[in-house]
Amino acid sequence: MPQYYIKKEDFLKFLDNLSREYSVYMPTLCEGRKDDYIYSQCLKPGDFIFNPYRTVEPIKSFLSPLKEKVSNYFSDKTQEGQDKKIAIVGLKNCDIQSLKIQDYVFLQGVCEDEIYAKRRKDTLLISSDCTAFKDVCHCIGLGIMPYPEELFDLNMSPLNDSFIIDVGSKTGEGLIEKNNELFKEATNAQLTAMRLKRESVVEQLSKHLAAKKLAPKEALQKSIASSHGSDIWQNEMLTCVECGACNFICPDCHCFLLADDKKDDKNTRVRLWDSCLYANYARVAGGANPLKLRAQRLRNRFEKKFDFFPTNLKIFGCTGCGRCIEACPAKIDIREVLKKAYEYSKSNKS
Amino acid sequence: MHKNIYEPQEATIENIITESPTIKTFVLRPSNGFSFQTGQFVDITIPGIGEAPFTPSSDPNVKDYLEVTIMNAGRITSIIHNTKTGDKVGLRGPYGKGYPLDQFKGQELVIVGGGVGLAPLRSLILALFFNIDDYSKVVIRYGAKTPEDVIYKDAIPQWANRHNRINLVTTVDRGNDTWKGNVGLVTTILNDLPVDIKKAKAIVCGPPIMMKFVTFKLLELGFGHSQIYLSMEKNMSCGLGKCGHCRLGPYYACKDGPVFTYDKISQLHDIWD
Fold first, then answer.
1. Which of A100, A137, A271, B219 qualifies as a FRET site for B6, CA 20 to 30 Å off?
2. pLDDT by residue (tens digit) across A248-280?
3. Across residues A142-150, what is the average pLDDT?
4. Which residue, B168, B171, B157, B151, is CA-closest to B57?
């Protein structure tokens, strides 16, 4: 698909046009914190800021929110209000790549979750390149680049006071056509400049990660699979407080509970995020619990991400966003745990 | 209209049969029709309270109602035990892979049940009876804790006499004054099975500890890993491989099971927990 060039002031006009059809969510700086971005709705296009790295909240909070009504059963269906389509601006590749897991869970398999499917269809994804990274970022260590190349509608690569726009879908193409007075075709010089900028970020992040001495991605599945009997889980368990923050903030974690309620004679069922660190996560009727111990649950989290998903989907259940590292009150660092598993598997080779 | 995967259909409780002090069979009539394959499971909803998974115990060839045999063991099951005839419940499913009847055709089958684990097996047994000429032998071994805990007390003697291809033995862990049958764990009635063990297929359902020791016993008797079919109990919630709770190594029990041959899972960790 062709690539376009748009000046920042024209991009603001584009956002303004977009807001007639979509509820536009844009990154804003967290109050009182200079280095974290969260999404806000209904800003004026003039309030747009370019986030150099990912936001605090993962993309799943838009597509399968924390708590969502999924059924009013045994009652007359009243026509529910149509949600306005939403547009999310500034998504980074760690969130974009997490769609592979979320789509696999909610769109594929036995059957699709029609609520997720509808929202996914009605959500416009405007991603952007990372121009900087946080200390916890480690996407490259998992084979994910800090710029999106697929799964978006439009992608923005900042260049001086303008953006290079990649088109990733028919919807994206349609928006360019609709606003064609704002976009120009990008020149070769601009595209070269964009590539150099990307390479420079990759180089800096690679340097940053080299210092961290990450476990090599090729060895991760084997490392986790073979460290089932190691004492890593027992040791990490000592500081884990089972808060579930790592699960809730993770763009790939997808586990949910179905919970029922009754109000005014109406039965409702909600789908809400669950955490595999919670004691009753795997408990069955009668009290048996295959994940009785916290160490087992912690291990389960890693086995799901680095063994189950590579086996079933050929990708990791981790995109290297580093959110869990920031969220963990016990300072459990996913990169360090993977390193320990890697070291263990190396020293226990039979 | 779209199909909402989380929405149960309404079903009426038509009859409740007390099987044992802790186990009842509920006869459900779904409002919109329902069909399942033997071994598949369903989710039963107590309106406004929640749902839990159960494997129907009735003949899958019967289409206008289904029976579910339930032990009072937890939050939802205790509420189900307090329902009355005429009450409405919700029904979702069926989910998972049923027993592979096509693989059982022409075979000698050994069905081993423990406690309320006979419930899914009853559905299988009735499905086999429906086309009994398709199977060369049906050997049933059932163990319960005490004579009181034996379920389907009236039906079991009838099964035994139904056909000369059927061979049925029961046992209880602890007998009483009136019990004239075997006493001992179900593993004690697995010797001298009247089948060619090299070719037979064993289907096991019961509490995890029972399945563990029955599996070991069957292996000792000469059954191969792929000849043993196990019903794995996990926390199956959504039934569709989405909610994540019932992961078993690279599988989800709800969509890849709940019935697994032992060769698929023998290398996985902690399967009996």
1. A100
2. 999 999 999 999 999 888 899 999 999 999 999
3. 98
4. B151
Instruction: Give contacts of B255 with chain A, Cβ < 8 Å.
Output: 109-110
Query: How many C-beta atoms surround the C-beta of residue B195 within 10 A?
Result: 20
> Under DSSP, is residue A118 helix (H, G, I), strand (E, B) or coil?
helix
Strands A154-159 and A162-167: antiparallel
Supply the ipTM of this predicted assembly.
0.92
pLDDT of A178: 96
Torsion sign over Cα A214, A145, A47, A87: negative
Residue B1, pLDDT score: 42
| A104 close to B (CB below 8 A) | no
Average pLDDT of chain A to the nearest whole number: 94
Model pLDDT for residues A161-175, shown as the tens digit of each residue:
999 999 999 999 999
Strand order in the sheet with A37-41: A37-41, A22-29, A85-91, A123-128, A154-159, A162-167, A3-7, A184-185
For strands B166-172 and B182-183, give the pairing: parallel
Residue tagged 């799943």 (tokens): A60
Give the distance from residue A206's alpha carbon to the nearest chain B alpha carbon, in angstroms: 32
pTM, to two decimals: 0.94
Radius of gyration (Cα) for chain A, nearest Å? 22
Distances (CA, A) of B181 to A224, A329, B122, B169: 50, 60, 20, 9
